[in-house]
Design a protein that fits this description.
Helices cover 37% and strands 18% of the residues. The chain is α/β, with parallel strands linked by helices and 463 residues long. The strands form four sheets. Strands 3-4-5-2-1-8-9-13-14 form a nine-stranded mixed beta sheet, sandwiched between helices.
Length: 463
């Protein structure tokens, strides 16, 4: 199949979140399955500042690089729109011309396919920034013979981000006012690009099976539950893969000593290293809990903050890495002063430390209120660090009582009760090691997940 990935960020070129990881890894796995894949993304300033992979000029307004064996990544260049320090906005808020920027990107992406004579079977779009691609294909390009056989898949990575704009900006998209109605792009008298992607794509998917069901409810649908319920027959969930070339304790160069399911000695060394680095007492008999996260309500920090004083009085240690809302910074910093031998806080982004936390912790805490997919729990499983999660989204699809701990009611009391159970179980060392080893055998590779995407593409071709 000829497959085009259209996305606003792709590893290793530009990244703000998990979307970039997915669009960087999935095409490589698809190529290994014999698919013909190209990627199209904006040519940001960050892209052109890269030393490797080499960026080459293709034509006016388009450059490219190559990843994998022969995957071309095309960049839609425009100094006015994309020659900026950030991808979507500054600290003061989103760029005011984002509708113009991503309309331009979508139009130019489709124009480029004709220039390079790449007639796609599937155009796979990701999140609101690429949502106008399926809209254009079903409206302004509906009669274009070049795209006659082309089908579209739209992946929702996080439904909380929708691309909302004032309705008077619609002419900037080049679309007719006929699309501005409640069944198409209109949403409370605004333009909603994500809604356009949902309505005009042939199939829709999300990054876990549970999340695909959750977003059809009022609690998690962010206003899109109605339109998603109408299209429930075309809505699927595929859990994200994990790049085991990066996340593998047997080869990880960022941890003090390598280890594997066959030889766990290095796990003990990793724990001692993390305790020293975090200025915590070096004790093997005390369970060390790790968190690598954005410090935000969505990630469970509301119930964690409510229960943190009681947690710090338990027989445990806690290492937290991340940045986020100031109120959580303040609460956690106060706890560090009160319990310096129990809790260690690192308010920053630090990839090397993240690796050390995944490797050196006994238990990985991830009490997210909602989590479309989540990678932290998959990484922790590979590193023999037992995940403790709230039953939501991708966490519900990857963690159960055979490889971790799951609490079903989102509350401080349930979180603390589950932490207490994990501490108690940790003392039974043989049973604990069995739990660790079951987790280490879990396989969330992109190789497995890419086959599910190929099945989805085949399904789209029959639409």
């Amino acid at each position: 199949m000829k497959i085009v990935m259209v996305a606003s960020e792709v590893v290793p070129f530009a990244k703000t979140g998990g979307l970039a990881d997915v669009v960087g890894a999935l095409p490589l796995a698809l190529e290994k399955q014999g698919q013909d894949v190209i990627i199209i993304m904006p040519g940001y300033k960050a892209v052109h500042n890269l030393k490797t992979p080499a960026i080459k000029n293709f034509q006016e307004g388009v450059s490219y690089a190559t990843i994998g064996k022969n995957i071309r990544v095309y960049f839609i260049d425009n100094e006015i729109y994309f020659g900026r320090d950030q991808l979507y906005g500054e600290k003061t808020g989103d760029y005011k011309d984002n509708l113009e920027r991503f309309s331009y990107f979508a139009k130019k992406a489709l124009e480029l396919l004709k220039v390079i004579k790449f007639k796609p079977d599937i155009v796979h779009c990701h999140d609101w920034q690429s949502a106008l691609v399926p809209v254009y294909l079903k409206t302004t390009l509906a009669e274009d013979p070049f795209f006659k056989q082309t089908k579209t898949i739209f992946t929702i990575h996080n439904i909380g981000y929708q691309g909302l704009f004032p309705k008077d900006q619609l002419p900037k998209t080049g679309l007719d006012w006929g699309v501005f109605n409640t069944e198409m792009l209109e949403y409370y008298d605004q333009i909603n690009l994500l809604k356009g992607g949902i309505v005009f794509s042939d199939l829709i998917n999300t990054v876990s099976d549970t999340y695909s069901k959750e977003i059809q409810t009022k609690e998690f649908g962010f206003g899109m539950e109605g339109i998603l319920n109408k299209r429930k027959a075309d809505l699927f969930g595929i859990i994200n893969g994990l790049d085991y070339a990066i996340w593998d304790p047997s080869t990880d160069k960022k941890i003090v000593e390598n280890f594997s399911a066959k030889d766990l000695a290095g796990k003990k060394a990793a724990k001692a290293d993390l305790q020293k680095l975090s200025k915590l007492p070096v004790k093997d008999t005390v369970p060390l809990f790790g968190i690598v996260s954005r410090l935000a309500q969505q990630k469970g920090f509301d119930i964690l903050a409510e229960g943190i004083d009681a947690i710090c009085k338990m027989d445990l240690q806690l290492v937290i890495l991340g940045t986020g809302d100031q109120k959580y910074h303040d609460i956690l910093e106060a706890m560090v002063k009160k319990y310096p031998k129990v809790i260690s806080l690192h308010i920053k982004f630090d990839d090397a430390l993240a690796h050390k936390i995944y490797a050196g912790s006994d238990i990985f805490l991830m009490p997210s209120k909602y989590e479309p997919c989540g990678l932290g729990q998959m990484i922790s499983l590979r590193y023999g660090t037992v995940p403790l999660v709230y039953k939501t989204g991708g966490l519900a699809d990857t963690v159960d009582d055979k490889n971790g701990y799951v609490f079903n009611k989102y509350s401080k009391d349930e979180l603390n009760k589950t932490i207490k159970k994990a501490i108690k179980d940790f003392k039974a060392r043989k049973a604990w090691q069995d739990l660790m080893l079951r987790g280490m055998k879990c396989n969330f590779s992109w190789s497995a997940q890419s086959k599910k995407y190929i099945e989805l593409y085949e399904k789209a071709k029959t639409k």
